[in-house]
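Give me the fold.
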Amino acid sequence: MNCQLVELATETDTLALGASLAKRIESGLVFLEGELGSGKTTLVRGWLRALGRKGPVTSPTYTLIEPYSLNGVHILHIDLYRIEKIEELNYIGLLEQLELSHLQLVEWPEQGSEVLPSPDLVVKLTRKGEGRTANIGFFND
């Protein structure tokens, strides 16, 4: 695994990191880890905007999965924060949806750790003063 630590002083830095990752990662399973308010959805917003998303990008906390189709690429933004029982993931057909998409960006992956496959990339966001740090682990370099 290849790891990289990135300092994110501002929200703009987090958006830029998402855009940078979008240029490098075209497909695969991405785990986004970090406490509430650490910038996971902001990172996804930067990623999707770099891929051409013009509309809003919000956390799918209540819908669980927000699909996007951008330039022929099927993307899932998944938020498992509210998952209480692993059976809920079977009920919503999460694994089947993963197989039908090119790129999956998963917030709170630990809530589905029993059934989710191994990620291609893990981004752990941590608050640091007024900013954040991102510890990025590439598994398929």
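Strands lie at 2-8, 28-33, 65-70, 73-79, 103-107, 121-128, 131-138.
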